[in-house]
Structures are given as C-alpha cells and as structure tokens.
TrEMBL record:
InterPro entries: His_Pase_superF_clade-1, His_PPase_superfam, PGM_Phosphatase
Entry annotation: catalytic residues: 14 (tele-phosphohistidine intermediate), 100 (proton donor/acceptor)
One Pfam match: His_Phos_1
CDD domains from the UniProt entry: HP_PGM_like
Protein name, UniProt field: Sedoheptulose 1,7-bisphosphatase
Length: 279
C-alpha cells in the first residue's frame, strides 16, 4: 500500500469572471472567463505541470467538473501543457452535482444587497444571515447542497480506494466554484452535521453524470453531511487546494497543508500506516 503515492483530490476554482471580480453571486448564470481569467489559468497550468511540476500529469486518473462554461473552460486552459496522449488518458466527468450553490433570488447580487433584500422581507431579526446555515430564498438549502456534494465525495473516495488497492497513483482533479468547493472541502474533512438518508429526497438515486458505471461506479450513500456555519475557508478565483488522506487510509480524509507541493518518497515515512490509531 505504501508503494504508490497517497491518492489526492485536487480542487480548482475556475478563473476570473466578470461576476467573480465584482463579487456578484454566480450560480446557474453561465459566464465565460474574462481575458485576465484566461491568462490566469494558462499561467496556472504552466506552473503546476511545466515549471514547478507540482502535479505529475501521468498520475491524474479523473477530472470531475461542474457543467458550467467557466469550469470547463478552466480545464482546457490548465491542461494546455499536457500532450494529446496525456490528456487522452484522463477521464473527464461532467457532474451536475458539482454545480455552484443555486442562489435563487440572490443570483447576481452582492452580499450587501442580499442582506438589504432579506431585511426588506422582515428576515434575520434575531441573527445575521449566514448562507451556510440559512441557504437562499427560492434557491438551495444547505442540506440540499451538502447532500449532492456528499455524493460526489463518495464517488471520488470509492475510486481512490480502488486505485490504491491496484497500486495505481491517483490524483483526481475537481473543477468547480467558490461556495461549492469550500463546502466540498469542509465536508471532506467531516465538518458540519451528519444525517441519515431517511427522507425520500435524500434516498433517491440521482445520476448526475452521463458515464456508465464501468467508468464511474454509482455509490449509494446512507448518510450525508451538511454545514451549519461558515467553515472559514478561502478559495479565490483560480485558486487550488489539495485534499488527501492521513496514514494512506481512505477512511481518514485530511487536508494536505503542503498544497500541490509533492514531498519526495523518503519524506513520507511519518505518514505510514500504524497499527495503533490512538494518535
């Protein structure tokens, strides 16, 4: 199990758009990257694959992406340094469960405008609005976002487990959005609350991607996590974060504080599996 690198989940927020620049909430609105955003993600691709070589392209097994243009455009730009052969070996999965929070009435608004709108509707008299707890009017609740992102995490961790058993290095990249990826990282780390899938809504089998189960096995979840407060994670447009596992164990999801930097194998000894888990 220690012969291949610990699997990683590399999260990438799409590059700058006009609304990410202005701070407007961008859910289902399908904006392209700005010219700056295009250059930004081209530079990112050069840095991680060519200049600093933080990511070995031959270790990328899958890319999961939001269906929005800004996410898919970012993938094309970041992967530019790769050869056609390298790109052909990466399975790109467009997964609707990775879409941004559906903001409903708040789409296109700034935070201060949302606060004023809610005040005009007589809301938040007892405490300030918190999207991670209160969700969005005529949009998604935090439970709905947590449920669908829990499904994505289950699929990715299942793939990582299979690759690890096969001794295959496996970096899985996830291209999505600001709120969605911060939420994703938080519940990867098991923050928030856990709920049983007991309602008809949480128990339904949702096929959020087109590929058959030979490409991405369907994973039925019996529990899901959702947030009840701000996780206080930052991820600016074009930002990259790295999630992985402690002690090479898929049962121990962790935050890789070293980010995309890869330690040489001889430096990984302190992460080896240990028989006693009281650490």
């Amino acid at each position: 199990m220690g012969h291949s690198p610990t699997p990683r989940c590399i999260i990438v927020r799409h590059g700058q758009t006009e609304w990410s620049k202005s701070g407007q909430y961008t859910g289902l609105t399908d904006l392209p990257l700005t010219d700056y955003g295009v250059g930004q993600m081209l530079r990112t691709g050069e840095s991680i694959f060519s200049n600093n070589r933080f990511i070995n392209p031959d270790h990328i097994t899958y890319i999961f992406t939001s269906p929005r243009t800004r996410a898919k455009q970012t993938i094309e730009l970041v992967l530019k340094p790769l050869s056609e052969e390298q790109r052909s070996k990466i399975k790109v999965i467009v997964d609707n469960d990775l879409r941004e929070w559906e903001y409903g009435d708040y789409e296109g608004l700034l935070t201060k405008e949302i606060v004023e709108l809610r005040k005009s509707r007589g809301l938040d008299k007892a405490r300030p609005w918190n999207i991670w707890r209160d969700g969005c009017e005529n949009g998604e609740t935090t439970e709905e976002v947590g449920l669908r992102l829990s499904r994505v995490i289950a699929r990715i961790q299942n793939l990582h487990k299979k690759h690890q058993e096969q001794g295959i290095p496996s970096d899985i990249m996830v291209f999505a959005h600001g709120h969605a990826l911060r939420y994703f990282a938080a519940i990867w780390l098991r923050l928030g609350e856990e709920k049983e899938c007991i309602t008809a809504f949480s128990k339904q089998k949702v096929k959020s991607y087109e590929e058959d189960e030979s490409v991405v096995p369907y994973v039925e979840i019996t529990k899901f996590r959702h947030l009840v407060d701000n996780p206080f994670f930052l991820l600016d447009a074009g930002g990259i974060g790295v999630l992985s596992y402690a002690h090479h164990s898929i049962d121990e999801p962790a935050l890789d504080l070293a980010g995309a930097f890869i330690s040489p194998p001889e430096e990984e000894s302190q992460h080896a599996p240990v028989p006693n888990k009281n650490y």
